[in-house]
């Protein structure tokens, strides 16, 4: 994020991802923040992105499902400077067969100092700040 710009000015593209047990929560959260999310270029992994498009009515580019390469696609977008924020509602209580992919995505987001929310409380706080700055 460029220090001379406010967060609202510097965020242009956001990825929305959720583990299976958190998809309902992310869809509900996206619905309640629809007006702010509509201002951004949105990307999502397969099922999550599809649900947000259908149930919330947002224009979102759907990538592959997380276990089929969607997490890697989002990581590549971060590394290439094409993604400014990642909202990834993580289920800390479920074992995941693709856990190594999730860890890689979080590592990339951390390495590139990407705005990152891994739960609803953090995502809401980020968007409250964005709403106040616009």
From TrEMBL:
GO terms for cellular component: cytosol. This is Methylglyoxal synthase. Substrate binds at residues 19, 23, 45-48, 65-66, 98. Belongs to the methylglyoxal synthase family. It comes from Harenicola maris. It catalyses: dihydroxyacetone phosphate = methylglyoxal + phosphate. The lineage of its organism: Bacteria, Pseudomonadati, Pseudomonadota, Alphaproteobacteria, Rhodobacterales. GO terms for biological process: methylglyoxal biosynthetic process. Catalyzes the formation of methylglyoxal from dihydroxyacetone phosphate.
